Structure to design on (165 residues):
């Protein structure tokens, strides 16, 4: 199996410098913008780093590509400026792994409010010790994050179709 490729999506020189200074792997490619053709050329296990919109992250996730977001807390005075590696460090830059999945259709407002209520119920189970959380509907133990996500997905689908899960 081929080694994963590391691709930085950024038009900012400071981002590439920060990656190097922070000790991240040397990038195989640095490109200013990710195109559909670029996405089509990616393979599972490739590593994409950048600040991409959620729909592109969903495309990457669907291909088995790992996405890491350059996450930092930029004060208002620095927004809109080119940041150096040192400024990025001062803004506590870090890479955060994300994946996204598109949920087809747009639920109606009443469905959205049900989903918010369901999320509020499941949040304690997600933060609990594995095996100690509970399924809000049936009070079964949730043994893993995967189980919690499956439970939430079933609830979302049921709510979208107007029935209780």
């Amino acid at each position: 199996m081929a080694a994963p490729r590391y691709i930085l999506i950024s038009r900012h020189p400071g981002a590439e410098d920060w990656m190097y200074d922070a000790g991240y792997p040397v990038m195989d490619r640095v490109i200013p913008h990710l195109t559909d053709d670029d996405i089509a050329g990616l393979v599972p296990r490739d590593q994409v780093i950048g600040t991409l919109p959620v729909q592109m992250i969903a495309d990457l996730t669907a291909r088995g590509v790992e996405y890491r977001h350059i996450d930092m807390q930029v004060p208002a005075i620095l927004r809109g400026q080119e940041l150096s590696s040192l400024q990025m460090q001062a803004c506590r830059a870090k890479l955060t792994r994300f994946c996204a999945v598109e949920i087809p259709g747009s639920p109606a407002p009443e469905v959205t409010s049900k989903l918010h209520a369901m999320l509020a119920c499941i949040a304690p189970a997600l933060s609990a010790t594995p095996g100690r959380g509970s399924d809000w509907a049936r009070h079964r133990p949730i043994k893993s994050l995967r189980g919690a996500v499956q439970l939430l997905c079933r609830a979302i689908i049921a709510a979208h179709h107007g029935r209780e899960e």
